[in-house]
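Amino Acid Chain and Its Fold in Token Form
===========================================
Purpose: to set a sequence beside its fold so the mapping can be learned.
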Amino acid sequence: MKQKFTVLFDLDGTLIDTAPDLMNAHNHVMQKFGYETKSTDEIRNLVGKGAASMIGRSLWNQARKELKKIDDEKIKSKMVDEFIDYYGKNIAVESKLLPGVLEFLKWCKKNNISMAVCTNKTEHLAVDLLKQINVYDYFEYVAGYNTFDYCKPDPRHLTNVIEIIQGELKKSIMIGDSETDSESAKAAGLPFILVEDGYTDKTINEIYHNHLIKDFNGIEQIINKYFIN
């Protein structure tokens, strides 16, 4: 039976605080290849567009700092492969749900609201993380960086998922923590809820949003305005 309403979620920094495990994987790679490590806060500014982008941005930032060029694509590719391998083996060591997330997922389920994840994390890593955090079964679909031929901020990353789970564009909403999520939601014509202190170097005033939340506590009131009343 087709669900009436749909909530789409970003993953990193939205549903789950993954920064500690991402930092550990990033720093493992950087140490192995002879580059400087990053703090958890610095990692939060690099996440959002996938592993390759994170490693590339980290190298670019270091190259700019040291006034030198790091342009060996083979080395970058090896670093990304090493990151994915290490991270996949240590994906849920310190990662945890954001406050209020589990309660909200249960509330959506109770109210017959469909849920899906649209993330720029590689699909198998996203699925594995959700399973290890014990929330995978709440979602009807998980779309990762490599699920389609495109990913966020391309709006088709979102609209394809809505179509796959037989939702309706006019009865869907997106929740995310970065400009990547915001841009894709806006282009898809979806209302966008922005989670504060997300994985981005942008300020909340630089990111388009319809609603702003600190965490998921009380978010049901916002959803009610769109879906219930």
